[in-house]
Amino acid sequence: xxxxxxxxxxxxxxxxxxxxxxxxxxxxxxxxxxxxxxxxxxxxxxxxxxxxxxxxxxxxxxxxxxxxxxxxxxxxxxxxxxxxxxxxxxxxxxxxxxxxxxxxxxxxxxxxxxxxxxxxxxxxxxxxxxxxxxxxxxxxxxxxxxxxxxxxxxxxxxxxxxxxxxxxxxxxxxxxxxxxxxxxxxxxxxxxxxxxxxxxxxxxxxxxxxxxxxxxxxxxxxxxxxxxxxxxxxxxxxx
Length: 239
Known about the structure:
By secondary structure, this protein is of the alpha+beta class. The chain is built from five helices and 13 strands. The strands form three sheets. It has a seven-stranded mixed sheet, covered by helices on one side. It has a four-stranded mixed sheet with strand order 10-13-12-11. The protein is globular and about 40 Å long. The protein starts with a strand and ends with a strand.
C-alpha cells in the first residue's frame, strides 16, 4: 500500500472509494456528482490523500481543508486543518492503511507549518468514531448531540474555534416541516440531490417540486442544492 496526494482533476475523478465498495452502497448514485464537485473545488475547499493498493487502485482516503477554506459550521483561526472524512475499504481495514493516511497528512501539515488539526468525531462505531481519533492523539475540545469536536496539536497546544449559527433560507409563505441537509461533497448527500433531481416538477396529485434558492439568489456556499416539496400549506425541503 502507498499514499498519494490528490493534486489533479484525474485524481479527483478517482475519489470516494467509500462509494466503490462491493456490494455497491446506495450512495454510489451520488458518486459522479461528488467527483465533479471535488474536481471543481480541489485546492480551494478540499484537499486530500488517497491510499492505493499494489495495483494502483484507490482503496482509502483522507479529505481535509485549511480552516480559512473549510466548509464547516465553525469559525476557526488561520493555520489549522479540518478533516472532513477518512475511510479505508472494508477488505483492507486492519492492515495499517489508515495509519499511513494519517501519518502522511501530519507530515504534510508539519511541512506547511500548520498549528493543528480539527475533526468532528461521531458516535457511530463504523464511521469516524471519536475513539479512533483519541487513539491517534486527538483531544476532545467540544461536544454536541452529533458527537465530539477533537483537536490534534502540531505547533500549537490549543485552537480558537466557535460554532456558527445555521442560517437556512426558507420559502416565502411556507412553513418548513422537514429539512434534509446534504451536499454534493459527500456521496451520501449527493445521492439525495440526485434522487430529488429525478422527481417531476408536478406529480399530478397536488404535490409540487422545485429547487431553491431560485436562480440569482446567493448560494449557501457549500456546493449544495436545496429542493422543496410542497403539499398544500406544508413544505418539505432538502438541501
